[in-house]
Amino acid sequence: MPSKIEDYAMIGDQVTSALVGLDGSIDWLCLPHFDSQACFAALLGGRDNGCWSIAPHGGPRAARRSYQGDSMILETVFETTGGSAAVVDFMAVGQPNPTLVRLVQGRTGRVAMHTDLALRFDYGISVPWVTRLDDHSGLCAIAGPNMVVVRTDVKLHGRDMRSVGDFTVAAGQTVAFVLSFGESHRAPPQAVDAMAALADTAAHWEAFIGRCRYHGRYTSAVRRSLLTLKALTFAPTGGIVAAPTTSLPEQLGGPRNWDYRFCWLRDASLTLYALMDAGYTEEAVAWRDWLQRSVAGSASQIQIMYGLHGERSLEERELPWLAGYEGSAPVRVGNAASGQVQLDVFGEVLEALHQARRRGLKPAPHGWALQRNIVAHLADIWQEPDEGMWEIRGEAQHFTFSKIMAWVAVDRMIKDAVRYHLHGPIDAWRAMRAAIEERVLREGYDPVRRTFVQVFGGQEVDATLLLIPLVGFLPADDPRVVGTVAAIEADLLQDGFVLRYRTQSNVDGLPPGEGAFLACTFWLVEAYAMQGRTDEARTLFERLLRLCNDVGLLSEEYDVDAKRLVGNFPQAFSHVALVAAAVRLFKGGSPDEMPSAGILPQDDNR
Prior knowledge:
The protein is of the alpha+beta class. The protein folds into two domains: 5-207, Glycoside hydrolase, family 65, N-terminal domain (Beta-galactosidase, Chain A, domain 5), CATH 2.70.98; 211-587, Glycosyltransferase. 30% of the residues lie in helices and 22% in strands. Strand 11 (138-143) and strand 12 (146-152) form a beta hairpin. The longest helix is centred in the last third of the chain and has 20 residues, at 400-419.
């Protein structure tokens, strides 16, 4: 059975990543890329679906772990009656082939260790043919197009379709295991010097975090979040995945299980802000260029998400041989939501490009023409219903926040045209912005309850409405915003954490029940800060920080009844929201201080 979600830590090389349990087992690894088929899939099934354990023989007396400094190099220390040993895990950065390194280091005494390797390609179903390398330096496992080579001085032997070995490590000794991926029709990957790779990988992460400009009260949490976001960036293209996992449930035992190993325009836009605000211009340019390549073509065909290279076909299917995390079925790969219409995405994308221009990024060739095409398409569709930010699988509706973000899209185009003297039909855009605003205030606001509502003419509230002052649609002290925050507190707070919406309303076409969405609670922190409720904001923020696991990672949601993290892990959206809330608390409540939840209201220019 897999570990609790919070018992995992991520290691990655900006090409792919692995999840390592506190017990020393790697239960999730996709090769060669984030969205490739997994060769370790025990996370979504059982040990026979692939995993790799290195731990003291008979189990440890105690275990503790941490990342080495500000890096993605994980160190797990096992205490036994005979001594202590550390397993240092990392994905080696800059190798020609994806490479996972595991170093077993003796710290005190002597520790008997055991390794158990079960490679299963094709998401845990294909057992490879395993042979010894010609030079007897390790094993080669092949199934179809996939090849994995494991090099080590430890003698491994086969047992029940697994490769196992026993060894002893004494204080001061290091035993290395190096796993490299290759294509089966080519020669095996070249051997990698494990210690040199460790030094190079440490230098890579140190150089990245050395550029961080945030030095506020919550520096440790912010830096760990930024490292996580960087690790979720696909370096070859600049795309940013929402999470490195699929089908970790939003409701334990339920069907709300989705594949997040793709690049959502929304999530990537918000990640861009977090990186820009912390001083990472290089990453911002790479993302901006990825965006322009991905959405190139007809504006009517823009998707809400793309593959790592900008792929558009993300066909969803189920894997029936995997039982699902703690029985949460079905396990899905691909994502059918890629074909949905979500109006808010246009606002987030145009706001991202607005912020990039405002921060002095060199304009992309044909960038303004692309933006004009986008807003021209939006003019044709903004009055239509959509599936909303939460990607409902029910009937399309007129979501209030979707319309507000359509307003943001036009608003930012007007601001850029005026400020940077860019050509465009500004009068038509101003008329469109006014029309959207009028309809939102007329149909998206309930004067009886004194709150904005989830859908036009509806009764329910939605956590996205917390973003109204953050995007500059209305100021935080507007009575309608104050009333909306109060309604969300009354209807969506569960044990102090914010639900996205009440799933009992059946708005999403799925069975009710899910955890509290962590990003939404960070939005409430920001709303409190902007309304001058500073003590409440700080108290709630610090409570959220206590949900981070022992190495500072957050999933998508928190199950307040089970008191466990749920949803895909680690989740970019949660860490972006953490950074934004920390910046808000550090800078103060004014919307003019710094982007918040990735969005900064600008001067009017109306």
